[in-house]
Amino acid sequence: QVQLVESGGGLVQPGGSLRLSCAASGFTFRSSAMSWARQAPGKGLEWVSGIYADGTTFYANSIKGRFTISRDNAKNTVYLQMNSLKPEDTAVYYCVPWDDCSSYRCAQNDYWGQGTQVTVSS
After folding, report:
1. Do β-strands 91-97 and 45-51 pair in parallel, antiparallel, or remain unpaired?
2. Which of 104, 94, 91, 83 lies closest to 24 in space, CA to CA?
3. pLDDT band at 26 (very low <50, low <70, confident <90, very high)
4. What 8-state DSSP symbol labels residue 37?
5. Contacts of 87 (CB under 8 A, 6+ apart)
6. Angle CA(55)–CA(113)–CA(83) in degrees, nearest 5?
């Protein structure tokens, strides 16, 4: 079965950095496009970033220039390096198959992980 386990979240001050990790299993990761999505308190899911199987990357305007998505196919892991964090980045971050985010709108599926909480506050 598909399993996605996010980690690396935490509490940081504005301007700080975090690196999120997502360990994937139960599918052919190396050929799968992956995304990060987030859900802020009281708000819906927001697509954040995506990466094709060949490593091509894409970013939402809200985080462009601050976040970097990457993947290590040998480890079945996708990463999100987050720099220059802002309070508005506070959210639960999910690693998901990009196919779940049609037209950059993400629809939660049963196999999604619990996400990892990122809190940016002074």
Report:
1. unpaired
2. 94
3. very high
4. E
5. 14, 120, 121, 122
6. 50
Q: Nearest-5° angle of CA 23, CA 26, CA 27?
A: 95
Query: Which residue do the tokens 């980690």 mark?
Result: 7
Distance CA 40, CA 87 (A): 10
Residue 118 contacts by C-beta under 8 Å, 6 or more apart in sequence?
A: 9, 10, 12, 18, 20, 38, 82, 85, 89, 90, 91, 92, 93
Q: From 40, 41, 30, select the one nearest 97 (Cα to Cα).
A: 30
Mean pLDDT of 47-63: 96
Q: What Å distances lie between residue 122 and 32, 34, 40, 67, 84, CA to CA?
A: 37, 31, 17, 20, 13
Burial of residue 119 (number of CB atoms within 10 Å: 0-12, 13-18, 19+): middle
